[in-house]
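retry 2 of 3: previous attempt timed out while embedding AHM. Reduced batch size to 1 and resubmitted. Inputs unchanged:
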Amino acid sequence: MPYNRITLTHFLLQDQRRLGGTGSFTGLVTDLIFACKMISREVNRGALAGNLGVAGSENIQGEEQKKLDVLSNEIFMHMNALGGAYAGMASEEMEHVSAIHGAGDGKYLLLFDPLDGSSNIDVNISVGTIFSILRLPEGASTIAEAAFLQKGVKQVAAGYALYGSSTMMVLTTGNGVNGFTLDQSIGMFMLTHPNMTIPADTQEFAINASRARFWEPPVKRYVDECLAGKEGPRGKDFNMRWVASMVAEVHRILCRGGVFMYPMDAENQAKGGKLRLMYEANPMAFIVEQAGGAASTGRQRILDIEPAKLHQRVPVILGSRNEVTRLVGYHSEHD
Ligand code: AHM
Ligand code: MG
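retry 2 succeeded.
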């Protein structure tokens, strides 16, 4: 095992020195690291700790909560409130934003999906935590929902923890994307995936094909052309993957390219889409763009969407740049 690797904490300190920061941002990521390590432990212990199964409650989205959804939310709220860097938090699992009255100066806002892909918990398939950090707007005195309704381009940092065959944390602060693997024996995240980059072209796509009857024509056209393989208009064969865990799909795309779609469909139209703008689409779009990829609804760059409400849903198409551009082109030809 190589002993020349650097830890996530040292990586952040190097960045802090380079940028001349005060250390408050580094402290805030340290709290995120603790929270994700604790969630990783609970996911890992699974049935041994009685962590599987449903909690018997519903979240604000009307979705059944798993025990681990509830536990992860509690861990994330508690651990991230300790450092005092946040003025407020918003979670996919909570109806309202939560003001944090900590010891620090509370300059940031934290938005998160504590355990994404939770339909996979009981079957021991990868799940993850997604987070997005915004600055508290100048002059915002009360921590109301309005303070959180900022475009994705305003994110200071975003990342995810993936609880997979190994636990990883992938992070961007707007200067590229880096991946760190948790060394369980010493409890440290080590830099293993520096400067992650998404290839512009791909032969792999991810979509829940059981929803094909609800798709709009541009998405149907794109998938049909991929399925036609070498003989079709694309002149090459495509492979398909669907984990039903956005963190795992985005991670695969960061590692080897691909395109991920949860597009607008007839059944989700009234809701605006399936995935949540503030907890899923925005942080993942920031990461994907920082890795050289693209992220769109099909009709608009995700990071440019002006949020109308906290739990807003949007269509999501992200990954290898040339494929996303093609899909956006199909949408504009159709509209
Ligand atoms: P969740 O936040 O309730 O876990 O839902 C989000 C997940 C994504 O991770 C994944 O891409 C999608 O929902 C899977 O949806 P489906 O069940 O239609 O395959
Ligand atoms: Mg989610």
